[in-house]
Amino acid sequence: MDEKQVRALVNRAKRGDHEAFTELVNHYSERIYNLGLRILKNADDAADVLQETFVAAYEKLESFDGRSNFYTWIYRIATNFALMKLRKDKKTVLSDQDMETHFDNPEKMQISEWQDVPLQEMLSEEFRRHLDEAVDQLPEIYKTVFVLRDLENMSIKQTSKVLGISESNVKIRLKRARVFLRENLAHYMGELVKGVNN
Amino acid sequence: MKHHSKKLIDELCNYLGQDLEQPMCRELLEHVQECPECRKYIESIRLTVSLLKKTAKDEPVPERVKEALFKTLKIDK
Fold first, then answer.
1. Cβ pair A43:B62 closer than 8 A
2. A185 touches chain B (CB under 8 A)
3. What's the pLDDT tens digit per position in A86-103?
4. Model's pTM, two decimal places?
5. CA-to-CA distance for B7 and A195, rounded, in angstroms?
6. In CATH, which of 2.40.10.120, 1.10.1740.10, 2.20.25.90, 3.40.50.620 is domain A3-89?
7. H helices within A61-166, ranges in order?
8. CA of B4: which chain A residue's CA is closest?
9. Is A61 part of the contact surface with chain B (CB cutoff 8 Å)?
10. Which residue has the higher pLDDT, A100 or A10?
11. Cβ contact, residue pair B12, A106, below 8 Å
12. Which architecture does CATH list for A96-197?
């Protein structure tokens, strides 16, 4: 469905056409559900985010003025609900300050050596679980940027609109998140190689 | 990366926060062609992102979740 078709559906839904809103739900629900899963790592929480997002979108549809596209608008609502849940339920292992200190200057960083791990290991369930856990350890402000930009394939500009932060801020957070994940993975690969050699 | 100039480190940091498929600025590109340490580092960041993309598979919305949503919205599927 292209942007023009989405706009036509939004206009119909604004005039009270339930069928048009149903089409919007069907079109975006899987993406919103998966966004919730990626941020919250829990199917029940992702289902809550999906529900809260579309209820809010239904109620606020009148206020959607079409200046941004509908996709950005609905992602913004969903991300806010997911963040509220995350803040309520979760302790963050690393603080913003930690990220700034450790991942802002490669000169000062203890860069772990990147180990070559056989492809088979990279495809294992355990490896995948580790990747998931690494993303989960990111402080929320970095996790949301990483999820939106790198996993949801949004542009820097769209990510900045969804989160309501500047594009340069998106880039700084994205760099810190990627460096953190790279370090985490390098450390894990080192352990794997040690295990294989012993 | 201890012996790199601040300007180069800044260029590298900028690049790591952008679209990793985009070409690097000339200065960084020239450096990376000569410096295996930086080349390996950028490649390892690219590999990290691509592994995470590959493992992030989309899940279908469970039918009961969709039903509950339409029930709450009081509209038909």
1. yes
2. yes
3. 888 765 656 667 677 666
4. 0.87
5. 39
6. 1.10.1740.10
7. 70-89, 96-103, 119-122, 125-136, 140-146, 156-163
8. A107
9. no
10. A10
11. yes
12. Orthogonal Bundle (1.10)
